[in-house]
Design goal:
mainly alpha; 0% strand
Length: 186
């Protein structure tokens, strides 16, 4: 740095680093805002179900159980992928599971912001319908809270785990839904 005429000085390198970090922050913020708005706008029924499952009745017990389910999926899935990779037959299943795990992490992160918007909408405006506007507002609030060291990351992680638990719970209910004709009680 600064040893030749074409290299920036230490002050210039510091300025470039701050400018680059600012641009990266703004681009990342815009990307997650657009993604949250798109997911809430394109899948309103699913978004309503995730918010209802997580925030219904303001039950802290349900919220904690969903967050624990999301945490269990976060921890157990990489272990399962590793076990499947060790077996020759399970490599294909492990690759599919790894792709699904990446999708799970992305959806849990985005729906954490949507849940924040739904909670704000329910608490402040008494609105229970979630549109793209609430999703973008919630993602903005969650992103700005996430910038706070330690506290923000903990809040973001807890909301992400609760959203992930709700997504897994809804997926399980949809995949293994039984009609009344399929399982008679007699």
């Amino acid at each position: 740095i600064g040893s030749s005429s074409f290299l920036p000085s230490t002050e210039e390198a510091h300025t470039f680093a701050i400018a680059g970090a600012t641009v990266l922050f703004i681009v990342h913020l815009l990307a997650v805002l657009i993604l949250a708005g798109l997911l809430a706008g394109l899948f309103p029924h699913f978004t309503e179900h995730v918010a209802e499952r997580t925030l219904a009745d303001r039950s802290p017990r349900r919220f904690v159980l969903l967050a624990l389910l999301g945490f269990a999926i976060l921890v157990a899935t990489p272990v399962l992928i590793l076990i499947l990779i060790l077996s020759f037959v399970g490599i294909g299943v492990a690759l599919i599971l790894a792709a699904l795990y990446g999708l799970f992490l992305l959806l849990a992160y985005i729906y954490a912001g949507i849940l924040a918007g739904a909670a704000l909408s329910r608490a402040l405006m008494k609105r229970y319908v979630i549109t793209w506007k609430e999703a973008v507002l919630g993602m903005l609030v969650l992103y700005l809270i996430g910038v706070i060291p330690y506290f923000g990351m903990i809040i973001k992680f807890i909301l992400m785990m609760a959203a992930g638990g709700a997504i897994v719970s809804l997926s399980y209910s949809a995949a293994f839904k039984r009609g009344q004709d399929e399982l008679p009680l007699e």
